[in-house]
Design a protein that fits this description.
- The protein has 84 residues and is an all-alpha fold.
- It has one domain (2-78).
- 85% of the residues lie in helices and 0% in strands.
- It is built from 5 helices and no strands.
- α2 packs antiparallel against α3, α3 runs antiparallel to α4 and α4 runs antiparallel to α5 (62-83).
- It starts with a helix and ends with a helix.
Length: 84
């Protein structure tokens, strides 16, 4: 859990910048990394939102991206706080 926390400390900032600047390929990679590690630690809701966000980013569905990015960020932020 400490490693998960350490690996994701700057994830929210990186993802925010990538989404805001519409660098969706970079955002997909960021989300993919979190999706994989979240699944392995049992963070199912975050894992599921990450899958949906990855799809929206891949398909460049901007309305969905904004909504899912907000959910993703809230869930990951809360998880990081709990782990800390």
């Amino acid at each position: 859990m400490k490693e998960y926390h350490k690996e994701n400390l700057d994830t929210l900032d990186k993802l925010e910048a990538a989404v805001y600047e519409k660098r969706y390929d970079e955002a997909i990679q960021i989300v993919h990394k979190v999706k994989s590690s979240s699944g392995s630690i049992g963070a199912k809701t975050l894992h599921d939102v990450a899958i949906s966000l990855q799809i929206a980013l891949h398909e460049k569905k901007e309305d969905e991206i904004l909504e899912l990015h907000k959910k993703f960020s809230k869930l990951l932020g809360k998880l990081l706080e709990e782990v800390e």
